[in-house]
Amino acid sequence: MRPTKKIHKNFFALIYLNSIVPISTEVKSFLAEHVRGVQFSKGDMVYREGDTCTKLYLIKKGLVRGYFLSSGKDVTTWISTDNEIFTSITGFFTNQPAKENIQCLEDTDCLYLEAEDLEYGMRTFSEFGELYRKLMVEYYIHAENRAFMARIPNALKRWNYFMETNKLELINRIPNKYLSSLLAMRPETLSRIIKEHAESIEKKGKG
User: Fold this and answer.
1) CA 64 to CA 56: how far, in whole Å?
2) How far is CA 15 from CA 12, 22, 58, 106, in A?
3) Is 161 domain-assigned?
4) Phi, psi for 164 (deg, rounded to 5)
5) What angle do CA 190, 171, 90 make, to 5 degrees?
6) Which of 109, 128, 160, 184 has the largest count of CB atoms under 10 Å?
7) By CB neighbour count within 10 A (0-12 exposed, 13-18 middle, 19+ buried), where does 105 fall?
8) Under a CB-based contact definition with an 8 Å cutoff, are residues 91 and 52 in contact?
9) Which helix (H) or strand (E) holds 114?
10) What is the pLDDT of residue 7?
11) Is the dihedral of CA 174, 175, 178, 184 positive or negative?
12) Does the residue 195 lie in any domain?
């Protein structure tokens, strides 16, 4: 894990957030002062179960997964990628020990805001609350999609739903063992489905 330069030397966060909600000069100055950058290497653990999580992350470029261990089995529960936010829900929002592990599946470049700075921003700037609300809506839409997908009883239908709600490039970026875990199927089942539907995958990619 390597800290990077202050955000005023990298305008990614300001451009990204301003595209969601127009933000004032005061909010831009606040973000420039309090948003920080960090780079993780592939395989790095952002948090482990039991850690205290105080940061809300935005992925500039990379791939991150959440998982837990059950009877020695590694179970992937979510995967986030470029231009998406992530955190430990239990840790960040309730200040309790994290219930899951968070691991980088690629070299990952992130920005983050500390919980106390987020709370201050919401108390101080009116548009900050609207920005936060829209980010959380997007965050929970992803969570709802995952919850819905997990309840689909048929493996092929889970695959189809994943294809409908995610970027096609993730198929090649996510290792098979983690994607199959996310989709609650055996790796060989996922490999067979991908092989059998290679033509439709190619068409979606061209579309």
Assistant:
1) 13
2) 5, 10, 13, 24
3) no
4) -75, -25
5) 90
6) 128
7) buried
8) yes
9) strand 108-114
10) 41
11) positive
12) no
H or E segment and range at residue 64: strand 63-70
For the record, the structure tokens of 32 come out as: 């420039």
How far apart are the C-alpha atoms of 200 and 171, rounded to whole Å?
Answer: 13
The amino acid at 136: M
Q: Would you say residue 153 lies in a domain?
A: no
Q: Would you say residue 159 lies in a domain?
A: no
Domain encompassing residue 74 = 2-125
Structure tokens, 119: 């709370």
Phi, psi of 114 (to 5 degrees): -70, 150
Rounded to the nearest 5°, which phi and psi values hold at 168?
A: -60, -35
- Per-10-residue mean pLDDT of the chain, 207 residues long, equals 48 74 85 91 96 92 95 92 89 86 97 92 87 83 89 93 88 94 95 81 58
Whose tokens are 């300001």? That residue is 14
Q: How many CB atoms lie within 10 A of CB 72?
A: 5
The enclosing domain of 16 has a CATH number of: 2.60.120.10
Structure tokens at 63: 């791939």
How many domains in the chain? 1
Two tokens, residue 100 = 């899951």
Distance CA 99, CA 29 (A): 34
DSSP code of residue 59: E
26-32, Cβ contacts within 8 angstroms, sequence gap of 24 or more: 26/125, 27/121, 27/125, 27/127, 27/128, 27/131, 30/121, 30/124, 30/125, 31/7, 31/113, 32/6, 32/7, 32/8
Residue 51 token pair:
């850690």
Helix (H) or strand (E) holding 32: helix 25-34
pLDDT at res. 206: 55
